[in-house]
Amino acid sequence: MSRQEQIYDLLVLGAGPSGLTAAIYAARARLSVLVIEQMLSGGQIATTEKVENYPGFPEGIDGLELGQRLEEQARNFGAEMVLATVEKVNLSGAIKEVKTTEGSFRGRTLLIATGTRARPLGVPGEEELKGRGVSYCVTCDGSFFRDKSVMVVGGGDSALEEALVLTKFAARIYIVHRRNELRAVRILQERIQNNPKIEVIYNTVVQRINGRERVQGVTLHDVEMNRTWDVAVDGVFLYVGLIPNTDFLNGDLARNEQGYLITGEAMETSIAGVFAAGDIREKGLRQVVTAVADGAIAAISAVKYVDEHS
Ligand code: NAP
Q1: Which of 10, 12, 115, 137 is surrounded by the fewest CB atoms within 10 Å?
Q2: How far apart are CA 254 and CA 142, in angstroms?
Q3: 136 and 229: one domain?
Q4: Which has the closest alpha carbon to 245: 18, 65, 81?
Q5: Which pTM was predicted?
Q6: Ligand 1, from 53, 183, 283: best to mutate by most atoms within 8 Å of Cβ?
Q7: Average pLDDT, stretch 9-20?
Q8: Which of 139, 152, 176, 178 to mutate to test the pocket of ligand 1 (most atoms within 8 A of CB)?
């Protein structure tokens, strides 16, 4: 039987830590599982140089490697994987349908684990200079800025962590943050304070990214002093938060104001047989450790649902 003809017990959308953990647990419980991923196993961590707060890896672990290991573990238990982009879902019937660029797939249960993506800053120059000095991924583009000056925008864990990775390449790194206090965890704040290549510019927002063919600089505005000035940089890395990847969903599922899916403790959504796990959920802490926990819980809920409905 082809994959399109089969009705899987569980379809997992997204091969990040939550989706792959769900696949491990569900396949181990002997559900038939298909994981649909559009890019790389690991999700956001696949572009993280080192995950250093996932328990059990005292030296840290390369994000790409962790993603590959999770995939291998899921496959070992019999989960199948397909590389495809989800276009639409139909959640109205007892069998859930997922339309993708590689055809349609069907499942008795569905887990949405599509995570988040970088939020655009929305300033002039950003869209025009994307890929020409404006980036959302240090792991992908950092090495293009060897011995150059770059700016990182944002004050969260991502901004600081990626600024530290940039110190391997760039000569000078400015972190621009809109408030007078960073949001990131203390250890990252200590590391940037102790790094002579990094300067933090507080109380300041980006007004415009400047450049014709490539980024040449940024116009900044100090919101305290009401002062505007230009800084010459070759690259701008934007880490101003995340938005949930829910474009393929219609309005069927309950969400909060920011668009994150609302679930109960068993990871159930507002539609029976449809679960959500990981960063896509409304939750207090978005980390690998909470994503894998969500995935395990969602898988066990799916097992229970399949048992009760067969
Ligand atoms: P975040 O925590 O939401 O931080 C976004 C940063 O961008 C904040 O400092 C915010 O400022 C700033 N910002 C938002 N909108 C802005 C705007 N329009 N103009 C200027 N600045 C703006 O996002 P994140 O750093 O990507 O982290 C997302 C989640 O992943 C967090 O839960 C984080 O803990 C987690 N994460 C964890 C690790 C780790 O554990 N190693 C690494 C990376 C990410 P304000 O502070 O003023 O709101």
Answers
A1: 137
A2: 38
A3: yes
A4: 18
A5: 0.91
A6: 183
A7: 98
A8: 178
CB 164 within 8 A of CB 188: yes
* DSSP secondary structure letters along 240-302: --EEE--TT--TTS-B-TTSPBP--TT-B-SSTTEEE-GGGB--S--SHHHHHHHHHHHHHHH
Structural domain range at position 214? 120-238
Determine the distance separating the centroid of ligand 1 and the alpha carbon of 178, expressed in angstroms: 12
CA 288/CA 258 separation, integer angstroms = 21
pLDDT digits (tens, 9 = 90+) for 145-181: 999 999 999 999 999 999 999 999 999 999 999 999 9
What is the CA(63)–ligand 1 centre distance, in A?
A: 19
Return the active site residues: 137, 140-141
Q: CB neighbours of 269 closer than 8 A, spacing ≥ 6?
A: 112, 253, 254, 261, 262, 263, 275, 276
Q: Evaluate: CB of 179 within 6 angstroms of ligand 1.
A: yes
181 domain residue, yes or no: yes
SS3 57: coil
Q: How many domains does the chain have?
A: 2
Kind plus residue range of the DSSP H or E element containing 86:
strand 86-90
Specify whether 133 is located in the same domain as 212.
yes
Of the candidates 48, 45, 31, 41, the one whose C-alpha atom is nearest the C-alpha of residue 69 is 41
